[in-house]
Structure formats: structure tokens, C-alpha cells
Write a structure and sequence with these properties.
Bound molecules: flavin-adenine dinucleotide
Number of helices: 11
Structural class: alpha/beta
Radius of gyration: 22 Å
Distance between the termini: 68 Å
Number of strands: 19
Strand content: 25-35%
Order of helices and strands: EHEHEEHEEEEHEEEEHEEEEHEEEHHHHH
Helix content: 25-40%
Largest sheet: 9 strands, mixed
Number of domains: 3
CATH architecture of the largest domain: 3-Layer(bba) Sandwich
CATH class of the largest domain: Alpha Beta
Length: 408
């Protein structure tokens, strides 16, 4: 028996302009932006606590973050200025930035909570332990959600529903949007939060080669005080989570012998190109629900926040014009595609190339980079190469040509 919240849950209304499903970075930013545009917003989260459990290595690009917020020491564990890349044979390329931080390692549970708090302060109604269980659909148009809160079923209407329910999104599927990805475009990840004296405090480490990870790479992201998120990701196609965990155990025994493990986790990331559709009548997909994490790095916090902000703005315009049809919400697809599409598609090709390159090829690329004194390039420039489609990509192109054996 369904009930509207109007009668049984006085604080929650039965009708909103926007209902956002999932209070990760994408959902909280979508809720905040929508509320700032004067819309009535409901943000629901199925977990008891926002941001927990954390399934993330917690790295975020400083430049991208500065578009959203000032850094706050309460949710920053470490500041990164250097990056070391290790080839399969153990050759190391080291990049540094002496005068600025390039990335932060977040305390994600506090960061996510802060984003949700900001949505609430902007006027969104926020409920935890509240799960979407289905969509209300009229004449092919999404008009709200079915949900469950503490055992009670409810229905709530919305002009637009935002799917921000992460990598395992069901909302998109309920709406009939095809977000399925190929097995080889899913990264199977395993990670330890560990303590070891050899963790370098301001330095990312990346390890390539089949010795450590077949078809992927391992990372070390310091969290301060000798702690680090140490993980690896490999394509789900030939391996899966068991293999990822087995590789991680071997990698940690080799790189951090005797380390204490404070937390272990496994999770998936989509490492695919841009989807053809991010919206339909009365619904938009944001963040991991829209498969927006980066295909090379698996990073999705920033793309989640960017898509959430675009969603809030586009929905505000659509609601103001009284048209939330599939046609009107196409503007969301256009803006997400313009903003994130080129890098997603370029990095998808790059990911496929890297997965096909032999260890010998990667070593060749490293040797070429050494000869060309690539290490003189600042870490921030290297980050721009990976995350921007407009700032050259000269180094990447050169290295890949070398790695594939082509003359430059
Ligand atoms: C091992 C690993 C390491 C990673 N490392 C990084 C990294 O270093 N940097 C980076 O940027 N990204 C990283 N990522 C990816 C990053 O965690 C995600 O891209 C990011 O969290 C996506 O944000 P989101 O808001 O789209 O989804 P999420 O953060 O997943 O939030 C979705 C929310 O929706 C809720 N939800 C789901 N279904 C429902 C429902 N039916 N009703 C209500 N609520 C629901 C979930 O409980 C969840 O809280 C990593 C991922 C993995 C697995």
C-alpha cells in the first residue's frame, strides 16, 4: 500500500520540482544547484550515513575543485605535488611541482557530507535511509519515484528526477535508458587503506606492467601520517575482483612488506566512452549513473560534480519554461557532451591502447620519455594532459607513438 509523504511524513512533501536519487558528489551538487535556482528539491540517500562506506582512492584535481569550493583542511588529508610512474621493468619517471599543489587526497566521508550539507543549506530536503524503489511514469514521461523509508512505501512526484545513484544505478534502467557497458569497460578494483613507514607524503605512485596488474595499474595515494590508499584496477573481462585482490596482496607484500591494513575494499568503475543519451522525458543521469568517470584514471568525483551542476542549471531552465520533455532535456546531453565528452572519448581510446600495449611497449615509451627529458614537465602539466582535451596532449601523443613502435 503506497502513501504520499504529505500525510504520514509531515516534513517531506508529496510533490517536488526535482527529486535527486543518491547523495554522492553528483547528487548533492545537482540538489544544491537546483535549490539555488529556486526549485523545490528532495535529495534521498539509501544509506544510513552520507559518504559511508567509502569506495574510492579519494584523489581530486586541485584545479577542478577550485571551480566549486575553497579547500578545507577538515576534508583534506594530503596535498600532492609529485608523481612517480614506474615502468614494468622498474624504470621511474618522476614529475614534480615545487610551488603548487596538484591534487588533494580527500577524507571522502567528510567531503561528501559537506556537499550534502550545502545542498540542505541551499534549501533541499535531505533524507537518509530512504531508497528509490521504482519510477512513476505517465505516457512515457518520468513523473516521480516510488520509495521506501524505514519500511514504509511512499510515492513522491517530481517534474524531473535526477539519477545520481552511482555505478550500480538502477534508476537509469527503470527509465529505459541504456547504460550497460561491455565487461572489458568495467574496472575491477581492490584497495587497502594501509600504514607503512615508506609512504611518501606528497607523492602519487603508479605501477604499470603485467608483473603487478594484468591490463591495469596499481596506485599509491598518501593520506598523511604514513597512511595510504593502495589499490589497483584491472579490466573485469579476464579477471574480476578475486584477481584484483590477489594482485593487490602480492603488490602490497612487495612494495609495503609488513604493512598494517586498516581497511580493505573492492569496487567497480566504468571505464567507457561517452554514452549516446544522458536524459529522457523527466529524467537526467549524472555522475557514475551516467558512466561519466574517466576511462584512464577511473576518477569520477569531479565529473560527477560537473554533471550535477549542469543538471541543476538545465532543469531550472526547463521547469521555468514549463517543458521537461525529452526534447527540452536534450540540452543537458548537449552541455555534458560539450564539457566532458571530448576527454571521455579521447581517454577511452587511450585506455584501450594502454590495455593492448605489451610491457615491452610501455618500457619503450618510458625510455623515450627519459631521452626526451619529459620529467622536466611539471606534475600540473602532466595532469592537464590527462584531464583536458584542449591543452595540447603533445606528451601523451609522443609517448604513445613511441610505445607502439611508430617513428615520431
Ligand atoms: C577503488 C575505487 C577507487 C576510486 N578512486 C577515485 C579517486 O581517487 N578519485 C575519483 O575522483 N574517483 C574515484 N573513484 C570513483 C568515484 O568513487 C566515483 O566516480 C564517485 O563516487 C561518483 O560519484 P556519484 O555521486 O556519481 O556516485 P556515488 O558517490 O557512488 O553516490 C551514489 C549514491 O547513491 C546512493 N544510492 C544508490 N541507489 C540508491 C537508491 N535506489 N536510492 C537512494 N540512494 C541510492 C548510494 O548509496 C550512494 O551514496 C574510485 C572508485 C573506486 C571503486
Amino acid at each position: 500500500m503506497f502513501s504520499s509523504f504529505t500525510s504520514e511524513h509531515p516534513a517531506m512533501k508529496g510533490h517536488y520540482d526535482v527529486i535527486v536519487v543518491g547523495a554522492g558528489p553528483a547528487g548533492s551538487v545537482a540538489a544544491k544547484t537546483s535549490a539555488e535556482h529556486g526549485l523545490s528539491v528532495l535529495l534521498i540517500e539509501k544509506r544510513q550515513e552520507i559518504g559511508e562506506p567509502v569506495r574510492c582512492a579519494e584523489a581530486i584535481d586541485v584545479k577542478g575543485l577550485s571551480d566549486f569550493t575553497e579547500p578545507d583542511p577538515r576534508w583534506i588529508c594530503a596535498k600532492i605535488r609529485r608523481a612517480k610512474l614506474f615502468s614494468p621493468s622498474g624504470s621511474c619517471l618522476e614529475f614534480r611541482d615545487d610551488d603548487k599543489d596538484v591534487a588533494y587526497i580527500l577524507e571522502r566521508k567528510l567531503f561528501d557530507r559537506e556537499l550534502t550539507r550545502r545542498a540542505a543549506r541551499a534549501g533541499a530536503d535531505v533524507y537518509t535511509k530512504t531508497q528509490a524503489t521504482g519510477l512513476l511514469v505517465e505516457s512515457g514521461q518520468v513523473t516521480g519515484i516510488r520509495g521506501k523509508q524505514l519500511g514504509d512505501d511512499f510515492e513522491a512526484k517530481a517534474r524531473v528526477v535526477v539519477a545520481a545513484d552511482g555505478v550500480e544505478s538502477r534508476v537509469a534502467r527503470w527509465a529505459g535508458l541504456n547504460t550497460a557497458v561491455r565487461r572489458e569497460d568495467i574496472g575491477a578494483c581492490a584497495q587497502y587503506h594501509l600504514v607503512h613507514p615508506s609512504v611518501e607524503k606528497d607523492c602519487f605512485e603508479f605501477y604499470f606492467g603485467r608483473k603487478h596488474v594484468p591490463g591495469g595499474y596499481a596506485w599509491v595515494f598518501p593520506k598523511g601520517d604514513g597512511e595510504a590508499n593502495v589499490g589497483l584496477g584491472t579490466s573485469l573481462s579476464g579477471s574480476g575482483y578475486d584477481t584484483a585482490l590477489t594482485c593487490l596482496k602480492k603488490f602490497v607484500a612487495w612494495r609495503f612488506p609488513g604493512a598494517s591494513v586498516l581497511q580493505a575494499m573492492a569496487g567497480g568503475v566504468t571505464i567507457t566512452g561517452k554514452l549516446p543519451r544522458f536524459s529522457s522525458g523527466g529524467i537526467v543521469l549524472t555522475g557514475d549513473a551516467g558512466r561519466l568517470s574517466d576511462p584512464v584514471t577511473g576518477e569520477g568525483i569531479m565529473n560527477g560534480m560537473i554533471s550535477g551542476r549542469i543538471a541543476g542549471k538545465v532543469i531550472a531552465g526547463a521547469v521555468a519554461s514549463g517543458d521537461v520533455s525529452a526534447g527540452a532535456l536534450r540540452r543537458y546531453d548537449a552541455e555534458v557532451s560539450k564539457c566532458l565528452g571530448p576527454v571521455l572519448d579521447r581517454n577511452y581510446r587511450l585506455k584501450n591502447f594502454l590495455m593492448q600495449t605489451s610491457d615491452i611497449g610501455v618500457d619503450l615509451g618510458f625510455r623515450a620519455a627519459k631521452a626526451l627529458k619529459v620529467e622536466r614537465i611539471a606534475t600540473s602539466r602532466l595532469a592537464e594532459e590527462v584531464f583536458s582535451s584542449t591543452t595540447g596532449n603533445g606528451i601523451l601523443k609522443l609517448l604513445f607513438r613511441r610505445a607502439s613502435g611508430s617513428p615520431t
